[in-house]
Design a protein that fits this description.
By secondary structure, the protein is mostly helical. The protein folds into 2 domains: 51 residues, no CATH class; 228 residues, MetI-like (MetI-like fold), CATH 1.10.3720.10. The protein has a two-stranded antiparallel ribbon with strand order 1-2. A two-stranded antiparallel sheet has the order 3-4. Strand 3 and strand 4 form a beta hairpin. Helix 8 packs antiparallel against helix 11. The protein is globular, with a radius of gyration of 24 Å.
Amino acid sequence: MSDATLLRVAAPGGRRRRLKTSPQTVAMLLPGLAVLAIFFGLPVLDLVRTSLSSWSGIGPREWTGVDNFAEVFSDATIRSALVRSIVMGVGVALGIAALGTVLAAFVSRGLAGSRIYRVLWFLPGVAPPTAVAVFWALSVQPFAGVVNVVLGGVGLGDDHAWLADPSTALIVIIAVGIWQGVGFAFLIILGAMEEVPVSVYEAAMIDGAGGVRSFFQITLPMIRPVLSTVVLLNVIWAFNGFTLVWGMTRGGPGDSTTILPVLVYKDAFESSNFGVAAAVSVVGGVFLLILGFAVYVFGSRKAPDA
């Protein structure tokens, strides 16, 4: 037998067959694997090396072992930043998934003007994150911001300092993150809904299921893998949402909106403490890997029969 790798895969009817990975296939994969190793693997290894060292960004690194990680897990500021990152990631992702699902459901049911809505709801996702941050930071300013002007016009006051209040600043950023990301999620979820066979809905109608029941018992279970992917991607993007937070609050007021990426930036480029910054990055990356695996397991489960 040749040196080719033999993989056992399930075949129709419960039988198993052998799939050969030929040398030609391996040869075609090698350039891509080399690119991944150079531009992803090596930076990750260097990041881990930095996390185990004390380095100011200039000169040689001093080996410190796990001291940086001990500081990460014992520092209340870092733990608070991790909690805020989780809150922001989960809040933005669930908000986007819920709103995108509702919008997609309306359009898939033939809402009047649905072709226009497909474009309008996607427009926020096209705008650069920096522009979005500046636009909304100005829009929620007291007195002059468009949000406060509208609230003042309906008698709710126009002097709300949303971004200056530690209790509301992160909520505003989460809302802006949902506004920016819902258009992309809407298109993906809509595509998944339109792939559900019409015959399934027709059978449900014959059995007496209404639109709401069909949505919860047919549509949602059948698009669950897509919803899981949307949630996972948006958790990752929001968890790493440096641009939006930095553009709107720079992590303030105080540390009320300082998430892990902002903390990494401050530690590395303002405090010249690259070792701790790298350790924080490693912890955040491990957390996202665990979360991604959990979402993958949940999303890959077989949907129940309609």
